Amino acid sequence: MAVTRTDKEHELQQLEAAFKGSDSAILVDYKGMNVPQVTELRRQLRAAKAQYKVVKNTIARRALKGTSFEQLAKHFQGTTAIAYTGGDPVALAKTLTTFAKTAPNLSIKAAVVQGKALLPAEVGALATLPGKPELYAKLLFLLQAPMVQLVSVLNAAPRDLLSVLVQAEKKRSSEN
Known about the structure:
Layout: H1 5-20, E1 24-29, H2 35-47, E2 51-54, H3 57-64, E3 81-85, H4 89-102, E4 107-113, E5 116-118, H5 120-127, H6 132-175
Antiparallel strand pairs: 1-3, 1-4, 2-3, 4-5
Helix pairs in contact: 1-3, 4-5
């Protein structure tokens, strides 16, 4: 079944909308992967709130025009798929790099994260960073620590006074 011009235009519009709604994208070469591996990769990327799409190179290059991903146009050669997200770029990078360890046929070509072009090695470095939830937890801990210390200091005086009164009561009762 041949792909018609209207099908290509529809795919182009979908890609343009996806690129405008995303701030991070990673290009991968999937040559040699079988269907169960690709299905598992899609499942893992959905869990990371990301999308994975196998694209035609010419349509993808056209869809990139006017977006922050325009730098990726030269990497659309051969078998190319794109993983993109509008959320956490670290989660996307972690998912792809851990999956690439189990599927050696998957290789990262290039990436753009929030307008900055990255090389494949830099995507691996991005994957080692803590994700947004971990950073939020650390920030919350840092903000909460002074308050916890203040409450401890304020509770120390009544607690110590009560301890002194209990000891004095024990001393009186032992003397009688």
